[in-house]
Design brief:
556 residues; alpha+beta; 4-stranded antiparallel beta sheet
Amino acid sequence: MRTRRYLGFVLACLICLTQGCWKRGPAPGSIRWRIQLVPRTRRARSGKLTKALVKDLKDATLEKVAAKGSFPKWRTHEDEYLSFSYPDDPHIKLETKKPGDRIPIMGGPLRTAGITFLKSYRLALGRHTYCLLMLDRNDEFDDSICMCGAVVYDKYLFHNGALYRFSFLGSGEVKRVQLLCNGLRVVLFERTHLPIHEDVYLDIALSVKMRNGPCDEDEMKKAVFAKYGFEGRLGFLEKGMTKSDVTELLGVPRREHKGILYYLQRHSYEDGRGTYSYETTTRLDLRRGSFAGFGKNWRRARELPPERGTPEWILAKARYKEGMWRAEDYDLGPLNPDEVKYVFDRIVALLPEASSNHWGILCQAVHALHAQGLKDKRVLPAIRARYLEDDLRMHQASWILHIYDPDGSRDLFLKRIRLTLDGAKKRAASLIKKEQSLTLAPYDDLHNLLSFLGKTHPQRVDLIIEAMDHPHSQIRSDAYFFWDSIPREVARPRLIKGLKDRNVYVRDWSARAFAKGFGAPKDLLVLRERRAEEPSQRIRETLESAIKRLEELEEE
């Protein structure tokens, strides 16, 4: 009896092993084992796709295919540039795309127009993109950022005669794979946007073979070291490296304690707020005699306080309120009375030559200081002198002029409105030619400018009408807010037209006008037509309210 139970247990174990019921890590020495240096979270170890990706498939059969971590049969594609393998499954089809073709990607379509791809290889799962390989002529890796997850580590590896880069998320999952070989680059689209198991994604990536290989490994390494410095060297870490191997690759650590090496680096970055610095500590555990992969807290970063007197420091001090302005890693404290004059002295000195980012930061600081009851009229000449520069955003500057000297600033507001309308018209024309993005900056503050101009200004009505007829939709949406500031006979044809505008805000303001007392029973036909065709539920409800109001008027 015991023998039967034992044999049954062994048989069950064998079945589980053959069917993959027990998830095992990659075998020591394999490529998967070599590149997996970032520790994996429990969810990452499960290999499951995110719920959003599964939900978007909307097909049980496709969900099963997407969830597969392996396939028994594979096909191989070959052309004049490369070869690669992909799953032999009836639901997975290979398509080759030319530059300019639209490719559906979860999270938004990828538009390759204007990008230098020679070819794209799309694996389609039904109507979805299962995997995408993009080939172009380039001898550098693509460092563009995708906001669906931060890359914490790039692992470099020579394979099939090419240099691979595996970009890892903090969860330990591979986000993206790229490879370079003698002037050609292959980029696999981010796995976070694809309904594909990580194992299959990596199997496809590792199967790529370039026909122009092999590359010069020493030269490729030098290029990575030269461009990425310590981070590039860190990407060539290998499991099994001894202390001497690590120090030869990375240099002498800043500190060593009980077999753990600590490397410190300082970095600077720019964003919409300004230029900021932070410090990272990389922790390499060699307590067992060699490197076996990163530990749980292998990297820590802390933001460094800005240098006293810089625009970033001024903004932090100006915006400080108890519990409101405090970075995670430092606290500059509130602005004390002795520092107020120094802060305004610095603002006045920096404004005339401030870059676009620093101009915005300094104007934010002046506005924030006013909220604390701190003013200094010395800032006015500097702001007025640059107020008509069309490459600077003036949202905060307009507020300062309005707060400090509203009557004396109206001529400047008028000139800025003219600059905005003309600049936005050029932007609209370039949009038609596909030369610009949809952003309207720095011509994106018309709403405030019309408000600050004042209701009694003799040119305000004409400017609102001109803006309501403007070719740029954002200008129209700002202008339609003021529909009740123009004569009713002028407003009516524009509000009727606005109900059909492609801009949702223009349609919304137009519908609100009819719901708030504008219009007559003769407008009912148009309103009913628009209600039937309007895609926005909120606007349809507003139109319904307008229709009921006008129907009541008709009955009277």
